[in-house]
């Protein structure tokens, strides 16, 4: 939006483009994108660098974009965009050129037939059985972190749940799943944090370099002496025609799991805990009936999920959508935050109600995306959420916010709903 424009996104219906860094939109994405859904469900917007893009906010159109193969995840699928141009975008983010391939060609950044192949290979290793078999370890890791919380209480009597529980839980679970030895986990926690926070390019670059080398060494060692972790399964997986993941693809896949499964799950735990503490009636219901945990996690994903919008989808041709023409080459962001509060789809959408019913897969909410790129780790994330919420409130029945609700600080990053800190009082235990 230009300096003279009304900062209210409702004004962005034709003449003014939506600015993703608009402070109002960052502070309260539910109201801002909700207004857009009413007034301009397919709206012109400006990317962070000022280039044109589109945001889509209605449930039906969000799904339509994610179902339409003419919208590509890989900009290379757009006629006229070459790999130099794509690499430039990534290098601008602070990556060294030689590591661009490890980040640029993830399963999430690919289109068929590459996506079909990668997704099929990884799905053979990342199975439902592997995820459910991990549950006792998720319980143990959760219990250990919860036991350690009193040791992190500061002078003001509060403990930051984000730093001491929400972040360490998912990265430790990923380490466990991949098969990272206990002694190396502190390193992974540090690299993970530096990679996902993406705030300091130099540290991100060195974390990436160190992590790639570490994964490469792990692969070499597993080839000598195989075990039965996810990494072994990824190394071993082979299609009938002999196709398998190359070393570069293996490294990229492990990095993807760390990046995709870390900050997201951490913020589901942070946002969900804050939501339950500020809705004591809902927390009470969960406490009375822990069997509600799977539904509660779905509802928290809908109501305050960490991902507000998907990765950009690139129009591979001119596409008509919701009365607008999206020109070839322009990116579209499918706003999960709009779809998940769409009154056409959910009764009383702004109300948090952990007793709403959801189907397990193909649920009406789009917190884990939709279509062929639907989150690979959704079952794992849901499992972590269920264990985290249930055990946290069980272990600390007197848990409470150590700050007023309106003092909680949300990180102003487009596309992400995340608390900087979540200070809590553990209460009498
Ligand atoms: C894809 C959300 C946890 C791995 C996605 C997408 C969303 C999402 C919205 C689709 C993005 C798009 O279409 O642009 C979440 C949330 C999580 C979570 C909210 C936690 C609460 C995880 C975990 C893992 C994971 C724990 C793995 C350890 C992936 C992968 C993809 C993906 C590999 C790409 C799938 C593909 O392109 O086929 N996730 N995710 N995610 N997620 Fe998750």
From TrEMBL:
Q: Which CDD domains match?
A: CYP107-like
Which residue stretches does the UniProt record annotate as biased composition, category Low complexity? Answer: 1-12
Show the PROSITE patterns listed in the entry.
Answer: CYTOCHROME_P450
Q: Where are the transmembrane segments?
A: none
> Keyword annotations for this protein?
Heme, Iron, Metal-binding, Monooxygenase, Oxidoreductase
| Annotated spans, Disordered | 1-24
Q: Which residues form the signal peptide?
A: none
InterPro entries xrefs = Cyt_P450, Cyt_P450_B, Cyt_P450_CS, Cyt_P450_sf
The UniProt entry, under Pfam families, shows: p450
Question: What's this protein's family per the entry?
Answer: Belongs to the cytochrome P450 family.
Protein name according to UniProt: Cytochrome P450
Please give the organism: Streptomonospora algeriensis
């Amino acid at each position: 939006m230009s300096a003279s424009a009304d900062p209210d996104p409702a004004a962005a219906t034709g003449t003014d483009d939506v600015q993703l860094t608009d402070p109002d939109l960052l502070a309260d994405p539910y109201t801002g994108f909700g207004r857009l859904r009413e007034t301009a469900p397919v709206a012109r917007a400006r990317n962070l660098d000022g280039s044109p893009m589109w945001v889509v906010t209605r449930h039906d159109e969000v799904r339509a974009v994610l179902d339409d193969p003419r919208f590509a995840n890989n900009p290379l699928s757009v006629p006229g965009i070459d790999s130099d141009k794509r690499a430039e975008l990534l290098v601008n983010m602070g990556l060294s050129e030689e590591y661009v391939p490890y980040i640029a060609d993830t399963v999430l950044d690919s289109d068929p037939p590459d996506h079909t192949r990668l997704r099929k290979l990884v799905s053979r290793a990342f199975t439902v059985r592997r995820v459910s078999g991990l549950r006792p370890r998720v319980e143990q890791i959760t219990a250990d972190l919860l036991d350690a919380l009193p040791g992190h209480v500061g002078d003001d009597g509060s403990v930051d749940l984000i730093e001491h529980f929400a972040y360490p839980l998912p990265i430790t679970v990923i380490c466990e799943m991949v098969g990272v030895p206990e002694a190396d986990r502190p390193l992974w926690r540090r690299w993970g944090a530096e990679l996902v926070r993406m705030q300091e390019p130099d540290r991100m670059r060195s974390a990436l370099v160190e992590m790639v080398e570490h994964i490469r060494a792990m692969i070499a060692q597993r080839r000598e002496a195989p075990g039965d972790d996810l990494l072994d399964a990824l190394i071993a997986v082979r299609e009938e025609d002999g196709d398998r993941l190359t070393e570069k693809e293996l490294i990229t896949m492990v990095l993807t799991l760390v990046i995709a499964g870390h900050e997201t799950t951490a913020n589901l735990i942070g946002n969900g805990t804050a939501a339950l503490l500020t809705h004591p009636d809902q927390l009470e219901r969960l406490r009375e009936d822990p069997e509600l945990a799977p539904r509660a996690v779905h509802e928290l994903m809908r109501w305050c999920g960490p991902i507000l919008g998907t990765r950009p989808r690139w129009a591979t041709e001119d596409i008509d959508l919701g009365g607008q023409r999206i020109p070839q080459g322009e990116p579209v962001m499918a706003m999960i935050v709009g779809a998940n509060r769409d009154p056409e789809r959910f009764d009383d959408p702004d109300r948090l109600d952990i007793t709403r019913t959801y189907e397990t897969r193909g649920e009406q909410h789009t917190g884990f995306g939709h279509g062929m790129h639907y989150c690979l780790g959704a079952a794992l994330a849901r499992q972590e959420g269920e264990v985290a919420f249930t055990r946290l409130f069980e272990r600390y029945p007197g848990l409470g916010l150590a700050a007023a609700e309106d003092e909680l600080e949300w990180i102003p990053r487009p596309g992400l709903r995340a608390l900087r800190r979540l200070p809590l009082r553990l209460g009498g235990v």
